[in-house]
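ok trying this again, last paste got cut off
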Amino acid sequence: MCVPFSAQAADGERLRLLHVHAHPDDESSKGAATTAKYVAEGVRVVVATCTGGERGSVLNPKLDRPEVWENMAEIRKAEMAQAREILGVEHYALGFVDSGLPEGDPLPELPSGCFALMDPAQAAEPLVAVIRMLRPHVLTTYDEQGGYPHPDHIQCHRVSVQALRLAADASYRPDLGAAWAVPKVYYQMGFHRLRYAALDLALHEQGMDSPYTERLATWEDRHYEHRITTR
């Protein structure tokens, strides 16, 4: 028997879902369809973004212009505001500074004061406040590897784990609200071979070129698939 989905918890409250992301745009590139689904079904969905994405890349050649680079922080804010409206979510910016994605051999040092260099317990404070305010039934974040090895994504995992622990500790910062232990936590596992293989196959079946074929040929097995419990 198929049990219809209910946006109410067992106690009759409206279900609440908190996504913790590293940058503006992660809410759109990682799980946006799932977010929209739950919003449409009546779940209260909140996105907490750790950084402002100030050191992001410009992937669209049409936007690779000096004025875009000079106003990256404001552009990312505007993009996040649009995503919030389209997805139907609430949004909280935790206020940390993007660390950037270091490139080169050897890798350069991360910039002073950036999110990835912060003490995770200290950086967890604003997220604890959001957790205690929202009292989510489910929280999603990244796994220990960040989904991919961006320093802010890895730090997002560390900070989320600290915040989950501290939010449930009534002795920690009672000024941030009453303690709340999040019942369920899921890692965002979008970067895995099975997903890209399915996308690759679908594109080929439609007679289209796939940008994933070359990537799949050199894919390093990171043993993610066995950790996927929910789709």
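PB: full thing came through this time. Residues 78 and 138 are 27 Å apart (CA to CA).
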